[in-house]
Design a protein that fits this description.
This protein is α/β, with parallel strands linked by helices. The protein contains eight helices and ten strands.
């Protein structure tokens, strides 16, 4: 995430701010600029606040020519809790905050967002809900916005990491499989890395929950869930790639530099994250990423917390991440050019 400042007074702003805490000016995020502007400025008169400003704490704005009354991010949600469901609406607001971060990153990376992409934000507190993706429609269980419930599920499933933003990033990975891989010249390479996606998904799902992953899964997969099916491996790896890109951009925006402990005998524990990585080979990205995670984990442990980054990236996983990087770079180079999924 980039660092933002108030155009009026220079105050540091965060992505979620709708008002400057120093000068009290109203603020709005402009998708076409990927920046936060002062709405009280006469030059911003064509910008209109999203109708979800109060309901979902949405600080995005509608630009000239945008259909109303919702912003570009909120328009993607086709189903939400009813107005008479206060608990559901509170969870909905949290989920929309995570979704805005996702959409910001997709826009920042130049990844195509088609008219087929939609979100159903529903809660399993009121009925059965399965988080997943189906032909462009992403369903998210709003019950996951409850920290205690999500932590309980994380422990039950033996997962090292589980967040609402992580769910969004995983499911959007499924959305980009047909766009970035299927029907392209890279499909066979993807199958060599992730496995044959033509194997029966339901059978793989049943086998995974009955037998679990192989004992040595961490040598080839970023998570145990990724072992279930090549589609899940791609989605988990894609989500992890988004984690890496976003965190490195944030580190660069705040000027974080890792120089390594004084006892280090080589330069492997040094890192100078940079904001623009589209044209960098993945080897350079991972060389910045690993020292940063070592430092962040050490800081977390100093505060008595578990590791902020509880993952070990085996060489095979890094190769898969590099493949995702290559496919995203193609989209970045063709930024703004519509990319349609292959015709069945």
């Amino acid at each position: 995430m980039r660092a933002f400042t108030c155009e009026n007074c220079g105050q540091l702003l965060f992505f979620e701010n709708s008002r400057c805490l120093r000068c009290s000016h109203r603020l709005g995020f402009v998708p076409s600029r990927l920046d936060i502007v002062v709405l009280d400025d006469p030059g911003a008169s064509v910008l209109r606040p999203c109708a979800n400003l109060e309901l979902a704490q949405c600080n995005w704005v509608l630009e000239e020519g945008d259909p109303g009354p919702l912003c570009r991010s909120c328009r993607l949600t086709r189903t939400r809790p009813a107005d008479d469901d206060p608990d559901g609406l509170a969870a909905f607001a949290k989920a929309e905050g995570a979704k805005r971060r996702l959409i910001f990153q997709l826009l920042d990376l130049g990844l195509p967002i088609g008219e087929d992409l939609a979100f159903d934000l529903l809660s399993s507190r009121t009925g059965p809900v399965v988080t997943g993706h189906d032909d462009g429609v992403i369903t998210i269980d709003l019950a996951e916005s409850d920290d205690a419930r999500r932590e309980r599920r994380r422990a039950e499933l033996g997962e090292p990491y589980r967040t609402m933003l992580g769910h969004f990033r995983h499911e959007i990975g499924h959305y980009y499989w047909p766009i970035l891989v299927e029907g392209t010249e890279e499909l066979e390479r993807a199958r060599a890395l992730f496995g044959d996606d033509r194997i029966d998904y339901q059978g793989a799902l049943q086998h995974h929950y009955e037998h679990g992953p192989a004992p040595d899964w961490s040598e080839r997969y970023v998570s145990s869930y990724a072992t279930m099916h090549p589609w899940e491996d791609w989605a988990e790896t894609f989500a992890h790639y988004l984690h890496i890109r976003d965190t490195l951009e944030t580190a660069a925006a705040f000027g974080l530099v890792i120089a390594g402990p004084d006892v280090a005998q080589d330069d492997s524990l040094s890192s100078v994250p940079v904001p623009e990585v589209a044209d960098r080979p993945f080897e350079a990205i991972i060389a910045d990423w690993l020292p940063l995670t070592y430092a962040l984990n050490a800081i977390n442990r100093s505060m008595g917390h578990e590791d902020l980054y509880p993952f070990t990236l085996a060489p095979t996983v890094i190769e898969k991440l590099a493949f995702v990087h290559d496919r995203v770079r193609v989209a970045e180079r063709h930024r703004g050019v519509p990319v349609a999924p292959p015709t069945p």
